[in-house]
Amino acid sequence: MHRFATVLATGLCEAGLDVVHGEFFDTVQVRVEGRAAEVVEKARSFGINLRQVDADVVAIACDEKTTRAHLVAVWEAFGVTGSDVDAIDADTADGIPADLRRTSDYLTHPVFHAHRSETALLRYLRALSDKDVALDRSMIPLGSCTMKLNATAEMESITWPEFSTLHPFAPVEDAKGLLKIVSDLEAWLAEVTGYDAVSLQPNAGSQGEFAGLLAIRAYHRANGNADRDVCLIPSSAHGTNAASAVMAGMRVVVVKCDDKGNIDMGHLRETVAEHSDDLAAIMITYPSTHGVYEDTVREVCGLVHDAGGQVYVDGANLNALIGLARYGKFGSDVSHLNLHKTFCIPHGGGGPGVGPIGVRSHLAPFLPNHPLQPTAGPATGVGPISAAPWGSASILPISWAYVRMMGGDGLRRATLTAVAAANYVARRLDEHYPVLYTGEGGFVAHECILDLRPITKATGVTVDDVAKRLADYGLHAPTMSFPVAGTLMVEPTESEDLAEIDRFIDAMIAIKREIDRVGAGEWPVEDNPLRNAPHTAASVTVGEWNHPYTREEAVYPAGTSAPKIWPPVRRIDGAKGDRNLVCSCPPLSAYGS
Ligand SMILES: *Cc1c(COP(=O)(O)O)cnc(C)c1O
Predict the structure, then answer these.
(1) Which domains does the chain show, CATH number per domain?
(2) Which of 51, 74, 249, 306 fits as disulfide partner to 59, beta carbons 3.0 to 4.6 Å?
(3) SS (H, E, C) 313-366
(4) Which residues' Cβ are closer than 6 Å to ligand 1?
């Protein structure tokens, strides 16, 4: 990159052009009094986009895909012809100042040198993936995460260079296809949520919360209510809600939940009355993080509106709602959606995500916009919420394909299937692990919380024991201790078939029988297949076996017929590990003086 930039700059200098910086890495600025637009236009006619910094300055960035032909074309755009790339290359030293040049070695870790052939690298990657109980071997029942299928048909198009190599600041004329996807998605998301306008700029649900709250703040300011800065948040909320409110400059006031996990309406009324002068908003989640459709939702919205506040509904649980109800129609003013949950963008391993917000029309003027791309939001907007005008635009084709292939009926069926699956899990497991919260008729929404606390109290077996024991059964654990400590939250989604859901439930029931043996005193609390889980191959083959259960019970609890997933490590002490970091790199002393 630097070589190309150097040759490019030297060619321009030799032709008498004014290169702005003597030292640079990959980007060269050139001063061409009054001619910047003309140069950019000429380059464009060669199929190259340069950046016009202002009327006089053009910026050019080289990268690893730059070629000699590109340099010749860029020179020509500046009116420079006849320069010889190879000659300049041979004669020109690098432009990086000597005192900034790296002299130390890099990539010295053995892992960068151990796998030298494609076969060796392939085996290394396979060995890494074998350590993971991933979606290719087990359902991932993580509640609150919506780990649904990321279909190949949805994913394929993001590998196409037309999407994957588009620059975030490419001229809009060059991004017509992606912008069509943006506008289609905005319209479809508005339709499924009942909102009037959508911004795809936020890169995560949490960033959407921040954008939505900024819109609320700006709306209050525009109405002369700059003092309205209190944000009510029920105690059941996801942690990001309060964090976003604080970031948006609001004061958080927590609203209690009753013993059924629902918003305590009495406490809400009191709190709203107390803050009628400074109430900015309430943030609620629907269905709630307890996995229940709270039937007071309209009343909550009404109460807050009557007191002059705005309603933010966290839309992370939209998988329980599409095709059944619309936020914008039951009293909410703004929501974020998580395209990496409900709309199939993969998010195991942490991103990238998309957390668009939908708003009703009165908040639309306060959506995010972007100083470098006027079409990316309203002129009256709150400014950029992420660096790129349309956020993580290159992964939007995944959600576009999902909606397009499912259609309205398909999306509705997905919701109904997800809700049916969660209720099936809840009904079958309730007698073994009581379902903590249910709504009217004893139903849950798209996920359910299994209460382990009474079991822990009676037998000493903890949520950790159950979660780790699932690995011996070849299954990924559910979400642990969120949103209630000592519980497991299960979300099967519409993507899992009955056989896999039954495999999970059967394992959970078998584990309950093991717990009962601990409870009955047959196995001691400190030495049983749960407390010692997960069992690695080494743990059952090396040395003496002196536990009160058999090796077969340890590693083949569901029988020997199914393929065995061997956990690569035994249990670690999570809290101790967090406080005692161990670096697997060579020790610092290995790096010499
Ligand atoms: C996942 C989630 C969020 C945060 O979304 P991110 O995309 O992880 O930032 C917020 N609220 C709820 C209820 C969630 O489940």
Answers:
(1) 2-99 (3.90.1150.10), 180-402 (3.40.640.10), 413-577 (3.90.1150.10)
(2) 51
(3) EEECCHHHCCCCCCHHHCCCCEEEECCCCCCCCCCCCCCCCCCCEEECHHHHHH
(4) 144, 204-206, 238, 240, 285, 289, 314, 316, 338, 353, 355
